Amino acid sequence: MFKHLLVFFLSFMLSVVSFAQQQRLSTTSKKAESLYLKADNYARTRDFNKALELLAEAIEKDPQFAEAYLKASNLNKMMGNKGLASQQLEQGLKLMPYNPGFANYYFELAEQTFQKGDYEGAKSNYEAFLKAKSKNSRAIERANQQLSVIAYALEAMANPVEFNSVVLPRSINKFGLQYFPSTTADQRSLIFTARQGSLPDHDENIYISQRKGEEWQSPVSISDAINTPANEGAATISGDGKTLVFTSCSRPDSFGDCDLYISYKTGNDWSQPRNMGTSVNSKSWDSQPSLSADGRTLYFSSQRGGGIGREDIWVTTLKADGTWEKPQNMGATVNSKGRDLAPFIHGGGATLYFASDGHLGLGGLDVFMTEIGTNKKWEQPKNLGYPLNTHADESSLYITPDNQSGFYSRSMNTDAGAFTVQLYSLDVPAAWQSKVKSTYAQGHVFNAETKKPLGATVQLYDVNTDSLVQQVNSDKITGEYTVVLTEGKQYALYVSAPKFMVNSLSFDYTSKQNLTPVALDVYLDPVQSGSVVVLSNLFFPTAKYNLERKSKTELDKLISFLQQNKEVKIEITGHTDDVGSNAANQVLSEKRAKSVVDYLIKNGVPAQRIQHKGHGETKPVKANSSEENRQANRRIEMRVL
User: Fold this and answer.
1) Which of 182, 183, 204 is nearest to 194 (CA)?
2) For residue range 309-318, what is the model confidence (pLDDT) as tens digits?
3) pLDDT at 392
4) Per-residue pLDDT, 514
5) Residue 595: helix, strand or coil by DSSP?
6) CB contact at 8 A, 378 and 370
7) 151 φ, ψ to 5°?
8) Cα–Cα 20 to 30 A to 46, which of 4, 333, 491, 595?
9) Residue 23: pLDDT band by 50, 70, 90 thresholds?
């Protein structure tokens, strides 16, 4: 809006030229007045340099000559000397008594002092402007808006949100500009955008740094397949480090000014980037993507039509067939009539951080956070406060899944006076933390017979809601996979591959505990006679055989396996621990196995494909010496006949 307001002032630039002819000048020095009038004539002929030279002499003769400062300010502004113009405007107004005729000067100085972060000075001048009863409705609206911002800013500065931050080492901050940081879920890889300098012809590329111990290694280009002579930047990476979405502009296959591209990693190699197509990209600017931990939900900024402000935040999800849904605007709770940019979705998926100048803040772009409420809708955004947010533009905040640390970028000037953007790490204050804390499970998938890595589908379900919350693929070359686990959830993890048994695992984080990473290699048995898997996510009340509702996810997975392997016949076997009598445990194990079979038959599996048996406490897998071991012995297994 400030740029639009400057248009108004262009017609006002030389208003002071005729001011001396209309009112008496403040100086008592005849020599200074003479120099001023000569400068006025030179200004009329547009010889601004000579006019400024004479005005400097006039000020030297009379340092209290207010009109000389004001005229010099106007001329310097027209010549692009903004810093000097601002100083002279401030000095000139300071020497003059309040005058409603200077309304536009008060407004202009208010804008300039605000841009410097001088809230009190800006407040004084906005109030002076409003007092003058100007008829410029746009400027009046702006002044009132800025006074609200100033009141908020002063309150925020009086109640700062304390946090510790450290500029990353020069081995990382070795470029002219570096920004948009993010990491993989295990925090071993840091990716960011960088360019050698701030000029438009400086190439913008994506870099990656690996952590060894506590130190980040010197960053390198993420891939020659991704970085090109065109600009690539504003990238986001999935939690497992296997999916990358980034922005590139003016490529031959672009649909708009800037488009989103996607690339996949197999082994150590990234695939040739692919434009995400018209289902995601528009004819306008599309940029600043943020992937969910599993790479299946994408948030991004766009100037496309149908939005609320100049830039809005949009979201799209990956469909089962591998295509992306039509992006949806995040709505008026998140998006404002201003600019809403740089979204970042936290690893837990319940908190979104973004930059905006349309929500009440400290001026410019501030960083906000919003969380999903109990009604599954995004709540009113919350400003992250001072000193992260200031009068200047802030954006590109990243917070790790465990809520403990984060990264952000900040503009500054070097000791030599050059403009730069540097990357910082920070300890995340409680006020900024997502309401959910997350960790990750990481390991490899192997063929149980050959012990070779296996490309498999890894799915994570919330058993209480029977909903798929994450899906990733293990690397077909290394077998590596990573999934994010969130506090307060009970998960079922399924690892499957064609012609292999489904492996079922369970993670229970419903009780408060320290979330620590889980290292878990998974071995899949080929589908063949004698293959056995434990159905880890079947739940029964103590000493009872009726299946609990949260067993549905496991049962439906079993049905899906049987539908995909129609020639397979199975036996469901029940097992117990040693608590209770042998006879009671035998009956309980048989009835639990039969409950599973009854569910399968009821849901379309032919009865002739299923048998069941109970073994009671006769086949423990561990000694019944602890509750943890007894829990392992209480199990339902599936065996291929």
Assistant:
1) 204
2) 999 999 999 9
3) 87
4) 63
5) helix
6) yes
7) -60, -45
8) 4
9) low
Radius of gyration (Cα) for the chain, nearest Å?
33
User: Average of pLDDT values for 212-227?
Assistant: 94
Helix (H, G, I), strand (E, B) or coil at 316: strand
Q: What is the pLDDT of residues 235-285, one digit of tens each?
A: 999 999 999 999 999 888 989 889 999 999 999 999 999 999 999 999 999
- Of the chain, the end-to-end C-alpha distance in Å amounts to 73
Tokens 């399924």 belong to 494
Mind spelling out the 3-state secondary structure of 446-508?
EECCCCCECCCEEEEEECCCCEEEEEEECCCCCCEEEEEEECCCEEEEEEECCCECCEEEEEE
pLDDT higher than 60, residue 58: yes
Question: In the structure encoding, which two tokens stand for residue 387, read together?
Answer: 């000193």
Is 353's pLDDT higher than 90? yes
Q: How many angstroms separate the CA atoms of 459 and 294, rounded?
A: 10
Calpha distance 63→84 (Å, rounded): 16
526 phi/psi in degrees, rounded to 5: -60, 150
**Whether residue 608 has pLDDT greater than 90:** yes
Which three-class secondary structure state does DSSP give residue 559?
A: helix
Q: Please identify which residue in the block is written with the tokens 């601004």.
A: 48
* Torsion angle defined by CA atoms of residues 542, 548, 550 and 553, in that order, rounded to the nearest 10 degrees: 120
Tokens standing for residue 570: 């199975």
Which helix (H) or strand (E) element contains residue 156?
helix 137-158
Residue identified by tokens 């080492």 is: 169
Measure the CA–CA gap between 449 and 460, rounded to whole angstroms.
25
- Amino acid identity of 498? P
For 378, the 3-state DSSP assignment is strand
CB 20 within 8 A of CB 154: no
From residue 133, alpha-carbon distances to 22, 126, 136, 150 in Å are: 21, 12, 9, 21
The residue type of 301 is S
The encoded tokens of residue 132 equal 């003058």
Tokens representing 640 are: 């291929």
Which residue has tokens 């402000």? 309
In the sheet that holds 340-345, the strands lie side by side as: 340-345, 351-356, 366-371, 382-383
Q: H or E segment at 426?
A: strand 419-427
Tokens of 283: 């004819």
Token digits for 416? 């030599």
